[in-house]
Specification:
By secondary structure, this protein is α/β, with parallel strands linked by helices. Helices cover about 35% and strands about 25% of the residues. It binds S-adenosylmethionine (SAM).
Length: about 220
């Protein structure tokens, strides 16, 4: 209970003040190299699971994009088969500050620089009314512990409602890729999809030459008829 009160007050303050230093630029060669690999990983993973149907114009949504450190990988992947991709990223905790006093929002400006028609939305997924051809959802909070640990107020923990909404805004013939962390979260994800009667393909463990994570990640692909 104490943790929730603390999270709620902190969340309220950062969303009211929107305090951040401006003009973030990553200068560390080591961090830039790591980020390059993270983007290659993102590209590679999308390439493994998304079915590439050519479009002249398509809308893509990334849910819970944090500081969007992987936006380039996403953008460049979709650019291979969509002439004009419109990429949105939505993040409920956009004004969370890093210890360098840059917010996620400000940091994302650096990671999305030069990506045409790419838009970082500081807000709740439930407020999104637009429809999308592709939805990417990497590591959704499906259990309360990580949601709390990441500093979010409990009133925002509603994984089923979020999943239902994401499915609703997915266009017909659209694809949604969900990636979960660890077997426990993957099982919860699967049970939610079953409960909501959302059809999916279980893609199993996500593997890439570019990056290896401590916990295995698992993919679900949802194709809306
Ligand atoms: C585990 S993090 C994953 C971040 C990122 N996708 C990644 O792969 O590193 C989950 C993110 O979802 C965000 N989130 C949680 N609920 C949300 C909501 N209702 N709308 C938008 N973002 C949300 C959290 O603030 C957090 O940044």
């Amino acid at each position: 209970m104490f943790q929730n009160i603390k999270n709620s007050i902190d969340f309220f303050i950062r969303n009211t003040t929107k305090f951040s230093r401006k003009n973030f630029q990553e200068k560390s060669e080591e961090k830039l190299l790591h980020n390059y690999l993270e983007n290659l990983y993102t590209y590679d993973v999308l390439d493994k699971f998304i079915i590439k149907i050519p479009y002249d114009k398509a809308r893509i949504l990334d849910i819970g994009c944090k500081n969007w450190f992987y936006a380039k990988g996403e953008y460049n992947f979709f650019k291979t088969f969509i002439k004009n991709p419109f990429l949105d990223g939505v993040e409920i905790d956009a004004y969370r500050l890093y210890c360098n006093f840059y917010s996620r929002f400000e940091t994302a400006k650096f990671y999305t620089k030069g990506l045409t028609n790419t838009n970082y939305i500081a807000g709740n997924l439930l407020e999104i009314k637009e429809n999308y051809n592709f939805i990417i959802w990497i590591l959704p909070f499906v259990s309360i512990e990580p949601h709390r640990y990441w500093g979010l107020p409990e009133k925002f923990f509603m994984p089923e409602k979020l999943l239902q909404h994401a499915y609703k805004i997915l266009k017909h013939n659209g694809q949604m890729l969900i990636i979960n962390q660890g077997e426990k979260e993957t099982l919860i994800q699967k049970q939610m999809l079953d409960k909501l009667r959302i059809k999916y393909e279980e893609k199993g463990i996500v593997k890439s030459e570019f990056m290896e994570y401590k916990n295995n990640r698992y993919a679900f692909l949802i194709k809306k008829d």
